[in-house]
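Quick one: structure for this chain?
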Amino acid sequence: MKDGVKDALVDGSICVDQGVPNRDSGLPAPTPTHELPDEYWTSKSAEYWTDIAKDWQRIPEEWRDGVPDEYQTLIGQLRDWEPCEITEKHSEEDIEAEAEELDIETEAERLVAEMEAESNDSS
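Got it. Here's what it folds into:
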């Protein structure tokens, strides 16, 4: 650093902004979360909300507090979600239902074949 700049920094005659780095100080401050328009929230994808739910504890509290209630509810539901467990009972019921469907299909095929045979016999 040049001596003049270094001396000015040390004696305090130059103030270094402690704000957001590389942000133009002439720009208005970022919009607070609670003032964001509805379009902002509705434009977010399902993946966005999933990521927000995963990182919810790491997100600054002032941002979390500004999220509309309906989206906070959604985030809560995503955070509480767990995949359902398939129990043996459900598996057996599914197998029985599939077997029943196959039986019905087989029976329908048999009946159609009988009807076709009868119509061929009568002609």
